Amino acid sequence: MADVAPVPAAAGISPEEILGRYRRARDRRLPCEGVWQECYDHVMARLPGSGGPALYDGTAADAVEQLAASLLAELTPPWSRWVGLRATRAEPDLDSPAAIAEARAVETAAETLQGHIDRSNFAMEMHQAFLDLVIAGTGVLLVEEAPPGEASALRFTAVPLREAVLEEGVSGRLDTVYRTARLSPATLLSRFPRAVLPRAVRDRATEGEAAFLEVVEAVWPDAAPPGMRAPGSGYRYAAVLDDAGAGPVLLAEGRFAENPFVGFRWLKAPGESYGRGPVAKALPDIRTANKVVELVLKNASIAATGIWQADDDGVLNPATVRLVPGAIIPKAPGSAGLTPLAAPGNFNVSQIVLEDLRGRIRHALLADRLGPTLDARMTATEVLERSAETARLLGATYGRLQAELLTPLLLRCLSVLRRRGEVPAYLLDGQRAAVRFASPLARVQGREDAANALLFLKAVAGIGPAATAQIDPAGTTRWLARTLGVPVELLVGAVPASPEPAARPTPAANPSAPQE
Length: 516
Description:
Mean pLDDT: 81
Strand content: 5-15%
Low-confidence stretches: 225-232, 495-516
Strand order of the largest sheet: 4-5-6-7-8
Helix content: 40-55%
Radius of gyration: 31 Å
Largest sheet: 5 strands, antiparallel
């Protein structure tokens, strides 16, 4: 990772202790892995020859794709302004030039942040992380600083749950993350060029052996006393080589201002660290529907090809009978010959059971409530009602995702951009600027507040001029602008938007930092 700050070797814990913590956390995760694997097996097609049950029904797979796409469109829509920054200190006095200039600076920083996110691979990796969230109930997104010269300063990676071992901290968030990776000796040397490796590992890299080495990367909150912490250091980082022959070897260590691993959950039960997804809730119906479709297909093949019975009359030989047009089948006198056997199955009952199962699966995965509307010609009131229904369905989940995903994600992105000098440092202190979410789901409350305010203004106008005189038009306009996310340039007295700054060279990455 390019933006990790190095720390003295004496300040870190031993590699043996890191691996011990990792193994204990991995053992606590073992009871969940069976359920996760079954969820993945029933909603995602596996590679040929990799095992797993045969899939006959695609209802759950289609519903999972729709739910993940709906989460992406409602929370972080690609190429849309779904996040913004608000100048908190400038709000009381937006008429002064200094306050307007500060608001404009914050607005420019928000545009810079959104531009880096749009030019990165965020949409692709976020969709994959949402798939993990829906299927297993827990998703992990890695936010790194891209190498100099890339189109965006941010690089995102959806970490598969099988590679991540998580622990819940005292804050209730997944702030301790262990990620495992199997690297070849050559890849290990290129990724950690400053690491002091045992001679056996270096010999394997020189000889070009194909054996893979297991590397454990750990990120955990810095527990040092506040007076001993380095400025801006909030999380410790360490990479350890777990080699049975050479023993644990510390490859790199450092500190992050913000956690690069963002772990988030759909919902969780008390006392558990990992989340529970909607697929686990619908898993009994998914298994049953898959079995019902399998039986229906077998029954359909019997109905199409038939089952035949014949008397053992000494003439009819079943081994030589060919059921083709124009075939002549000999039989003994008085024998029934070859007769079809009635199919015992009932297709109507199977279809009734299957439709009920599919309906419950779509309901559990919100496919019947978050899908596209049947009538595209909706009035404004119908659009607001549908948005309110979406907010009601995803209210609890959205609240958790805002606390565990969106806020840490934006703080990490701002930390990377601040390190590169793209945004001012005061955006992270929480006093002069605040994060304002502008996704479609977040704008529902703003539209409702604006509608209530406009209804109030209409009622006041009907009372008479005396009541209208109590309204501050300028203050009302500023409040509506903030509530609806209107740019500050549209207000009277706003500082005109400054031209785009000339492209400046990107600062080089820290040469002493371990690369990832």
